[in-house]
Amino acid sequence: MPYKRISGSISTPKVDVMIDMGNPFLNLSVDGFLKMGTVAAAKVAAEEAYYIVQRAISWEYFIEDHLFDNEAYFSLLICQCDLTISGNVSSHKFEHTLKKMCKQGAYWGTIAGLYVGMEYGVERIRGTSDWKNAMLGGALTGAIISAASSNSKDKIVVDAITGGAVATAAEFLNHLT
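Predicted structure:
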């Protein structure tokens, strides 16, 4: 039975957290899921923060350029927008952002965990560590994700080729630096 242990370290500029599930395959898959899921959630948070600032600035210019005589109409415009004049975020918009962060984090984390697991499995089966593992792992991941999305056979093949190509390119770029 696998045991769970969490350990972490913080050393500039890298944060590393490892969860020991008792199996190297599970360890790598969970690690990939957590790392890529965190990146995806942070990406959504950054995008939403940008949109909030952009809307707040747009409202300030809109208010400066248009003087409203009818206070009721002005209040209606403010209520329809997710932002108030001061730039505060409504609870609806905040909830929407959190849901989007979780959804994107889970989606990209699943893909990363599947890819890392596939690459490790291919390495174990082949008994060697080289770029071909990344290519096969990427191709298998692309095909599985595409098939799970109920795509046609042609789309599954295209996604498998794309997954293999992207993984191979990333592997080659890793060895250049």
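Summary: The mean pLDDT is 81.
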